[in-house]
Write a structure and sequence with these properties.
alpha/beta
Length: about 220
């Protein structure tokens, strides 16, 4: 399903070229739960950003279902990100003055099935255990509740892939464990390919497979 072939990523830091990824080759099967581990700055987030179409490689190809997204136009990438990928970030990235329901519905803005979208949003909010907070503004939520909202939002457009970048990084251990359980449960229920970037070995141990990155290279 996901195939990174000979991927390198370079960027400019001041007057210096920095290589974030060195000739990465990686395959992830449909429905697989994969954890990408490594220290800060190892290239974990770069891999997720490339898979999610948030960044483009300097060299190499990124194939999703045998389609090379590295050749997509901006319009095609935007559609790919909206319809095929759900993102869960460490910093949540919620609109704090919108309600939980309104935040979950944001990715559906350009859809034409408003009633169906609202129904699905409420179902997802229930699945992550926030039915009683659906009309609460997200600036009134705890960190764990914010991340649950972000997970529901990531699922609203029935994505094939969920990319989670340090999804428990800003949470205490107990809350982080609950968030991980929610992700695992939803992964199994919906058959979504789940890729988590984490430095936490306990979280990584829950995955079907662990991919270790160090200095931009797969170990």
């Amino acid at each position: 399903m996901i195939h990174l072939k000979n991927i390198s990523k370079k960027f400019v830091d001041g007057k210096t070229f920095v290589t974030a990824l060195h000739d990465i080759n990686l395959e992830i099967k449909k429905g697989e739960f994969v954890a990408i581990t490594g220290p800060s700055g190892s290239g974990k987030t770069s891999v997720l950003n490339l898979i999610g179409g948030l960044d483009s490689p300097t060299h190499g190809t990124i194939s999703i279902n045998e389609k090379d997204i590295s050749k997509y136009s901006d319009k095609e990438l935007s559609k790919y990100r909206n319809r095929s990928v759900g993102f869960v970030f460490q910093e949540f990235h919620l609109e704090q003055f919108l309600t939980v329901l309104e935040n979950v519905l944001l990715p559906t803005y350009f859809n034409h099935h408003k009633k169906e979208d609202a129904h699905r949003a409420k179902e997802l909010i229930s699945e992550v255990g926030l039915s009683d907070r659906a009309t609460s503004h997200t600036n009134q939520l705890s960190g764990g509740q914010k991340q649950r909202t972000a997970i529901a939002r990531a699922l609203i457009n029935n994505p094939q892939i969920i990319l989670a970048d340090e999804p428990t990084g800003n949470l205490d251990a107990a809350t982080g464990a609950k968030i991980l359980e929610i992700l695992k449960t939803l992964h199994k229920k919906h058959g979504i390919t789940l890729v988590i970037a984490t430095h936490d070995e306990k979280i990584a141990s829950s995955a079907d497979r662990i991919i270790k990155i160090k200095d931009g290279k797969i170990c």
